Amino acid sequence: MASQLFLEERDANGNFAKAFYDSYDRDVSSRTNIAGIPHSSAGLEKKRDSFDTKGFSGAEIIEISADDRTRRGQYYVGKRRSTSRLLRVLQLLISVFLPTGYPDSVTSDYIDYQIYDSIQAFASSISTLLGNRAILTSVGVGDKDATSTSALFITVIQETFGRLATITFAWRFGSMLEQECKKFRFSADLVVNAGIVCDCLSPYFPGNRSVKILFLCCSGVLKAICGVMANGSKAALTQHFTNSQRGSIADVAAKDSSQETVISLLGLLAGSVLVPYINTNKELWTMLIILITIHLFTNYRAVSSVVMDTLNRHRTNIVFAHLMDSMSPGMMESDFLNQPPVLPSVILTPRHVSNQERILEQDGVLRWGSRGAVMGIATIGTFSAVRRILPPGMSIQDLLSIFGHGSAGYVLWYETSRVRGRRSMQVTVRIALIERSNDDSPTSDLEYYGPKSSGSGTPPPYGQVDTREVRAWVHALYLARHVRTLHNGTGESNSITSARDNVIRTLHLVDGLFGPTGRVIEALGIRGWDLTGGRTMIVSWSMPRMRVRDSLQEHDEKGKP
């Protein structure tokens, strides 16, 4: 009996791409695989209801037999599957809860994060139920002497403190959420669990209304802070997970909301069954400790599985400390850096850095690597902060002359202090970003990265990056390491000449990395770091920058006829 086979290939959005067809005999047991040419004569190997669709990814097979009965099924490259109901259900769940085009529309670390995130959301839903029950008990539910007005008054106070905390925290830390999204995502769950503990402690003071209100207000503040940190860090993570070419940030965020809704609902249903059996204080705190442990552990694993490809302060410390340790002394000043096959090999990839990254690293710490000692602390701020720590005999003009009167894109200085109870020395570096107002080149502070074209003066369009932020932070790291090394060895002088020599020496070291050839920027791009469009997370976008004017040059230009 002769039949026709139609293969209809569609893209990830279900749009029609092209069709293939062939006529074959049901009694034929072996044919060649389907050719990839539309409307071509092609054969296939047919075995009952299974088809081998080699060369097609996600092709929809429609068989129309002689009696006009139609069978449909989804088949994938190199696999044989029958048109089972379980497969259809699985495909439906994927389309409902995962972004359109998954897995091509998201990064490779997306699914690992979502698995752990779903588990922590389930545990958090149950612990939240225990906290809500404690709040109801605290405001007087079940107490014949309590009034609804009193409960409303307590709720209003709690909400007031919570909303004020939202505004204050967003104002103070809002610009840092994208840089340290992994740290703030994990910190959000630490804070919300502290709020749940405050909720559970509030019923223990039935006769002391002030203490009860204090615990509830603390809970409201902590939960409000959690909301700001969680929402801001989730937005940054959603941007990271979305494939810029094939994915949609809105779709990824919407599907994440759907997943969280279902998991929270399952957690509420499980909590509704579990909570009535928790009556004693021992049972309450035992269950709460178990849930908080699961919540924090899975959330830590979730953020640890994220492989960020942008450089923030902590990741910059890891990358450039490893770079320095991988090279022998003196190599930085030689022409060795101009050999492109060598330098990328000593640059850590984003995945290697993710395995070494500290989730709760202190902000501004100049740590040598991930497990090394703290070299010092650096802050990026205003020029006034740098000027305040300049030695009395050093002028602003002297400082600017070290950094090429603004051509470096930043200035910095350092001071040292003793750490109480230790022999070690604390190095504090203050950095100010600067711009030259008389430079007409719109890309004067930008460097291309990516393989350079041979024989052509125009680099290929791999992207551009403003290197000032990375250069300044790397300079601070190497400066702190150099000063600490001198102090632990022969001793370091606090004179202006010695401090100036330390700054100039490490500046030359940084110039060897970020010189005109741009080999470090190129190597970072080759190893998978995203630096295009200013994608560095060293400072927030609201950070002030000083503008340097060349007054003599401007005067000469104005005096020209």
Structural notes for this entry:
There is one protein chain. The chain is an alpha+beta fold and 561 residues long. Helices cover 47% and strands 14% of the residues. A hairpin with a 5-residue loop joins strand 1 (2-10) and strand 2. Helix 2 packs parallel to helix 4 (181-201), helix 4 packs antiparallel against helix 7 and helix 8 crosses helix 12 (468-488).
List keywords for this structure.
561 residues, four-stranded antiparallel β-sheet, 15 strands, alpha+beta, 47% helix, five-stranded mixed β-sheet
How does the major sheet shape up? 5 strands, mixed
Helix fraction by DSSP (H/I, runs of at least 4): 40-55%
- What proportion strand? 5-15%
Category by helix and strand content: alpha+beta
Encode the helix/strand succession as letters: EEEEEEHHHHHHHEHHEEHHEEEEHHHEEH
List strands and helices in order, with pairings.
Layout: E1 2-10, E2 16-25, E3 46-47, E4 50-51, E5 59-64, E6 70-75, H1 85-97, H2 110-139, H3 148-173, H4 181-201, H5 209-241, H6 249-274, H7 281-304, E7 311-312, H8 313-325, H9 350-356, E8 365-367, E9 374-381, H10 383-388, H11 396-402, E10 410-418, E11 425-436, E12 446-448, E13 464-466, H12 468-488, H13 496-513, H14 519-526, E14 536-537, E15 545-548, H15 551-559
Parallel strand pairs: 7-14, 9-11, 11-15
Antiparallel strand pairs: 1-2, 1-5, 3-4, 5-6, 8-9, 10-11, 12-13
Helix pairs in contact: 2-4, 2-6, 2-7, 3-5, 4-5, 4-7, 8-12, 12-13
